[in-house]
Amino acid sequence: MIVIKGVPASPGIAIGKAYVLEDEEIIVNKTEIPKGKLRMEVKRFKAALDATYRDLDHAEQKVLKTLGRQHAKLIDTHRLILSDPLITKDVPRRIESEQVNAEFALSEALETVNQTFEKIEDEFFRERRHDLFDVGKRLLSHLLKREKRDLTTIDAPAILIARNLLPSDTINLKETKILGFATDLGGKSSHTAILAQSMEIPAVVGLSDVTHRVKTGDTVVLDGDHGLVIVSPTPEAVTKYQKEQKKSIREEKALDTLRGQPAVTTDGKHFQMGVNLDVPEELKTVLALKPDGIGLFRTEALFLNRTEPPSESEQVRAYTHVAKSMAPHTVVIRVADMGGDRLVQLGIDAPKDEANPFMGLRGIRLLLRHPDLFKTQLRAILRSCAYGNVRILLPMISSMSELRASRQLFATAQQELLAEGVELPKKIEMGIMVEIPSAALLLDHLLTEADFISIGTNDLIQYLLAVDRINEHVAHLYDPFHPTVVRVLSQIVETAHRHGKWVSVCGEMTSDPRAVPLLVGMGVNMLSVSPRMFLRVKQIVMSLSTASAAQFVSKALTLADSEDIQRLLNDLLDAGALPGHGPAADGHEPS
Length: 591
Known about the structure:
This protein is 47% helix and 14% strand. It is α/β, with parallel strands linked by helices. Helix 1 (38-66) packs across helix 7, helix 4 packs across helix 5 (102-118) and helix 13 packs parallel to helix 16 (371-384). The longest helix has 29 residues, at 38-66. The radius of gyration is 25 Å and the shape is globular. It starts with a strand and ends in a 14-residue tail after the last helix.
């Protein structure tokens, strides 16, 4: 029996025979095109563009029929990519200036953009490169006149094993006998993962070499809850996972009953349960969960796959739609947390190749350098305030001067709108992300000007521990249970409450079942969770005693080693505090 650990992309368990999909790597050769035939080569490229647009029209109808309008927006994203000057202008320019074939010119243009995506730290946006590859692959297939991959020919129930699955592959899985899939590449925020979740297909991604370790016909257990692929499982393991499947079905039914219920602990403490919203198209899913609000509305997607920033009116429509839909609950809108590479794509002057973009021109630093961009977004958010309970959140604040400069621009935007006759609420709260160590240490001063805080654990942990989460050599050192992390989090919450300020946590820790007792014990006001984990985390909160969780935190603060803290946490969980706690639930591989 072989156990391979990957990234849980879509929950659920599948047991069956493996079907290993051969890698569809397209090899592009460079061919010199004579001057007299360059016009025909450009014409051939434009014909492939037209054929790809027809593909997208066909795919849109299929998505509308099977998944609904919210996922049909994915096709709009692909159309935007297809109409990007990178493709429509850069490729024909390369063909003519370098006298090369269309396939080679396209592959060179795509590689240029891929290198830009590689430097993006945020996983959600890094994973958007697969949409670029999807569009590029469609174009190349038309240029090379290659047959489309047809997964409907798999004629028996199977677990699909592949190097990578693009969104266009995943859309078709509903029409197949695929029970689940596992891939070498990919992340949990890719469109492939999001589509799998919507279609309720178990999936594990980021397995590195699963295609080399599994053969077609092998019996496989795919555990989408814990990111495991078990090859040639023992009869005992199969029996165990069959029981887990039945238990999972029962738990899903139990979780459904929690929709709309207040998250109250066993000793009567009420916790606010919010949801993280990446794109407005996910709003339907979020509303079905009946949360206490949106604890983090990431607005960066509005600036993606386009050649100029979104207008004020376009942003107003997006923010108003979310605010109206969630009213009277709170919507925390974070201003765009982008890097300089994004501005280059938007046609705005910015550094193209920063040596260390994770600590470079991004977040509030970038917005303050481009005040027109910042003020336009602030005006749009302010105008949406009339339609719901909206708060504004500033990313990557590290000093009082940044907070004061942001507040000054905010005041200017307010004065402009009032002068234009726009009615605004008397009080609009502005908070800060606490995700940089300097903000955590300076918090008592920052709270004199910030109305609330949201702890971004992803960045805070990596900056505290000097660990790049996407560097495979040190990623294992990224540890939310490191004593320094526990101490700093506790100090942040304590400082905020001493100043009478509201605290939410919106990083990945809120979606980690093992970390939830830690956050509850610290007394945060809101947990803002990914939609996929919302009901499960809510169930955990409702099963906890705040007194026991607080005692656990007090004890954890005295410990000097992560393993000791996790051992203490396991003792708490083994005492029955965490529903569904078992061998795989704490990240350990099953025997």
